[in-house]
Design goal:
Strand content: under 5%
Number of strands: 2
Distance between the termini: 11 Å
Membrane topology: Multi-pass membrane protein
Protein name: COX15/CtaA family protein
Shape: flat
Helix content: 55-70%
Order of helices and strands: HHHHHEHHHHE
Keywords: Cell membrane, Disulfide bond, Heme biosynthesis, Iron, Membrane, Metal-binding, Oxidoreductase, Transmembrane, Transmembrane helix
Pfam family, one: COX15-CtaA
Subcellular location: Membrane
Length: 338
């Protein structure tokens, strides 16, 4: 498509948001991604999963819930509206990333990736409703929500980086340890998803199919993953200290440790008190914080300075006051797709 017909390119010629605006737009997507997880938890914990029994409308005759549907219909419909707000926030992030001067293609791609994850998860959420809260689809719905959170955090982090090649700030064995930590944390969240799919909070007051595993056994597996992650976190802190890592990585690992401690306290208390709704919701919020903290640990072991046309990362990138980045000319062989 010619650049003159590309509305995003036209917008970029007329509006150059500041770096601060782009960073805040990216942070807003992180906040909304967390809200999506917490909102979905509220739907499940209040037995409102089928508050709107069909999709994309709330009933076959109405887009919105009726008075007769009560609080459950209102909760489920509100959760659907949160997705609409998320779409707006992601849209702003796309426009801001695309209009920033100089144009950073990688940042724009991360913004678009969020859009497609949101669309895919919205459709999956509809299928979840139409299948009567199939627990495997509900679990997949949760996994996609954390995938969105991952991309949102990556974009937020990238807004504060340059586009020069990545510089590793730790030896390869240390970086490999962080990837083991990341894998263990992913296993922790997946085990928690299975606990949810097998546990007492099915998402609807009527009988709903559950994952056919012993809830207490899978809870023990979840607990085992907790201690594996805690052990890896402590080990990583000592390894970073021994290898002379900077204050930044050590601070990120310490943050992860304390988030894990708080999350562990909530987890043990909720189990001992027979999983009350309020503590389960707090635990889901804590899961988001654990995942964010882990991602920040991984990202703290690298840096990407600002790049220049000459390729010298020590010099500042093109100043936004110079105007928008130049698009490749037609026929140059360089793609201009967003």
């Amino acid at each position: 498509m010619p650049n003159s017909l590309n509305p995003l390119a036209l917008l970029a010629r007329r509006w150059q948001p500041s770096a601060t605006f782009v960073e805040r737009a990216a942070l807003a997507t992180v906040v909304m991604a967390v809200l999506i997880v917490v909102g979905g938890g509220a739907v499940r914990l209040t037995d409102s999963g089928l508050g709107c029994p069909t999709w994309p409308t709330c009933t076959p005759q109405s887009l919105t819930p009726t008075r007769a549907m009560g609080i459950h219909g209102a909760i489920e419909f509100t959760n659907r509206m949160i997705t609409d707000v998320l779409c707006v926030v992601v849209g702003v992030a796309i426009l801001a990333a695309r209009s920033r001067s100089p144009w950073r293609r990688g940042l724009t791609r991360l913004a678009w990736a969020q859009f497609w994850v949101v669309m895919g998860n919205a459709v999956l959420g509809g299928i979840v409703v139409l299948t009567g809260l199939n627990p495997y689809l509900v679990g997949s719905h949760d996994v996609l929500a954390f995938s969105l959170l991952t991309v949102a955090v990556l974009m937020w982090h990238r807004t504060r980086e340059g586009d020069a090649p990545v510089r590793d700030l730790a030896p390869r064995p240390v970086r490999q340890l962080t990837w083991v930590l990341a894998a263990a944390t992913a296993g922790l969240l997946l085990a928690g998803t299975v606990v949810t799919g097998a546990g007492p909070h099915a998402g609807d007051a009527r009988k709903v199919h559950r994952i056919p595993v012993d809830w207490r056994e899978v809870t023990q597996l979840h607990t085992d993953f907790v201690w594996i992650v805690v052990g890896l976190t402590v080990a990583l802190w000592f390894v970073l200290r021994a290898t002379g890592a900077g204050a930044g990585p050590l601070r990120r690992v310490a943050e992860l440790f304390w988030v894990l401690m708080a999350q562990g306290v909530i987890g043990y208390v909720q189990y001992a008190t027979h999983v009350p709704v309020g503590l389960v919701e707090a635990h889901m919020f804590g899961a988001c914080l654990v995942w964010i903290a882990m991602l920040r640990v991984v990202l703290s072991l690298r840096e990407r300075p600002a790049a220049t046309a000459e390729g010298d990362p020590a010099l500042p990138a093109q100043d936004s006051a110079r105007g928008p980045a130049q698009e490749p000319a037609q026929g140059s062989g360089v793609t201009t797709a967003v």
